[in-house]
Records
---
Amino acid sequence: MTNHQDYPLRAEAMDPSTSPARLDELTKLEGDRGDCDSDAGWCREFVATNPSASAETLTELSQDMNDFLARLGAARNPNTPDSVVRALTTDWNGQADAARARLGLPLKPADTLTRRLTQDTARSRRRQS
């Protein structure tokens, strides 16, 4: 279990009492998430789930194509504007399902290729039995 005293920036990013301005600052800190001990590198994903994050910060995080976790958090955060969440419903990853759930929409239907593969597998199994 992570001790938040060892990672004060992460703790600040998760704390709902942190001001929206400070949360925005935390998203801009240099850090490498690949280095598990990089406190600053993990702030963006925690800010994205913070109920005190501003709509502007969440919009910025939602548009970062290189940060899946921040986009996912923004999709789930009630402070993210609905127009931004709607844009995430077409993503190919978990953000789409999170965004659709947040808007009360059904989950994204499987794409045509996935449906074809599923149908082909079912036909093949019927032939084998």
---
Amino acid sequence: MRKVLVILVNYNSETDTKVCVDSLFRHEEECDVNVVIVVNAFKQKKILNELSNDERVNILYPESNIGFGRANNYALDWAFKHLDFEYVYVLNNDTVIDRGVITALAKVLDEERDVVIATPRIMYLSEPEKVWYGGGEIRMSSGRPYIYDFGEYPSKSRSLKDRYVTFVSGCSMLFKRDFFDKNTLFDDRFFMYCEDLELCIRINRMGLKMKYLGSIYIYHKVHGSAASHNKNNYSGTHIKNPNLAFHFLNIYRNRRIAMNMHLNGKEKFVFNLLFFFDVSFHALKFSLNGRFKPALMWFKILF
């Protein structure tokens, strides 16, 4: 039976975390699953206490909110010292996993030694017929991943097709443990956003592969943690996002850092030129709509 470590990061979203954990334990007959939950913030300690009563669940409380990427690294470091596992599944805590998914992903890693990440199709939980992640490719000129069938119904030639990809969302990444003998997970410089982008570029540059399975899928609530303090669920750089300044700064600054870590010469020049105009356009748009604090993030992003 495969021994699988699953890492979840909780930020004021204990109900989502419990639903996710319950779905993971449906794999009990096919996988030996141990869950490590890193609690960056919480509102319902009772749910966490209930989860901790299960010997398969380990809950870690950092001294402060350490962000998404660092929280995953924190959990992995702890697990190396305390748990026995063969696979590492980095998973968003607002997902729901069906039976057979982990086994199918692990089989790819077992059979194709040059594949270091396996990932499934990800569907919206609120609109389960529509695609949130259908395989992705990194556009190096912009640093933006292109997602097949994003927000659309799955199609045979795109999101339903198994393929090698250059971008895998940090929402769902399955690794074999031995990948971490010589490699790190996420770069600690990224508090939130683009840690998956940097990791995927790093893997691509190493000549290793990532495989997307369109034939299997999980469900994603999308922005579950953000929704806990954002009633209208406006996310990212949406003009009405109450946390727009934070998201604009972290999404764009981290993208710039990730790309400049790996680009050289002409590629680097083209990216930074297009990036400058992209950031400036958004800052102008925010200013024209009275969102002056987010607009001022322009300086922190570029300098």
---
Amino acid sequence: MPLMTALGEDNPFKLIHDTFQHLISGDNDYFEEHIATVQISDVSDPTVFLDEAQMRKSFEYIERRLAE
């Protein structure tokens, strides 16, 4: 996330993390320090699956954010 990092700590911009879009992108990076909102989306396509590691990572992220 070079642009967000280059804007510095006073950066007024934040990201929305969409769980569905993240799943279908195949990306494993979360950039937690830049996320302000998490949209928990559903995947209704029976051919697309969240594996256990993806689900665990998503829930761990949400738990950390709720603890703040």
---
Amino acid sequence: MSVNGKLLSVAVTAVTALGLVCVGPAVAAPTTVSGDGGNRVGVVQGDGVASVRQGALDAPLFRQHENVKQIALTGNRVGILTDAGVVWVKEGGLSAGWVRESTNVKQLALAGDRIGVVKAGGEAYVKDGGLGAAWVLEARNVNELELSGDRIGVVTGVGVASVKQGGLGAAWVRQSVNVVDIDLSGTRIGLFQANGAAWVKEGALTAAWVKEADHVIQLELSGNRIGVLQDTGVAQVKQGALNAPWAQQSDNTIQIALSGHRIGILKGSGAAHVKEGALDAPWVLQAERVTELALS
């Protein structure tokens, strides 16, 4: 999910109304916080330090970088966007060396062997393959970029959402208008609109939309799970078909993340929790004073 003005405004309003204490920027929907069943958990804390743990939910956290604005995880890759707009990505173990990928960036996205960035001027670029692969310009006037498998999704500055499937040069297929945010996972596409309505489709890019929820300020997809954060601070997740029932996960929440059988939440107090397994599994505290939580 991307940090955009409208969403940030809604998040701040919701957090204020709930009386929650935010230890850093009120970010209800950071970019690329959900994963595809990996075993890494990443956090950015109030001092700008990014850390990652790998394996069990009680594994140690390893410090990765400082002055971090955003962290993104996929497979054995870790990506960070610094406060200065520089993107660094590493591949392999948590102690691997960083490779500088881009500058003047406002958003980072990772998925598999693809890396995507949105520049400060709204140009979206994606590369496919090694960390030294060439960048391909995908679109202009982009507010948000999402990656999943061989799909790329964008939301433009005027709220138009489009998705392409296949190679980096594939054609765009328009999905919807008045869109705040788009999310991708496998053959599912999700979005929510300026009125807070969340929709998900499954299958081809031209499949029909199914309305999932109202009052939504964040939408996340991973596998057959859908998660929403509503403007009341309530986080809910459903598993299975698009019309499956919702299971409430948490209140006083300012961010949700999904990855396979893992669910993560960030509380207004700055406490990040993750659970693994069934929707009613117990929570495991990951860190305090957190401003962003990401799952691989």
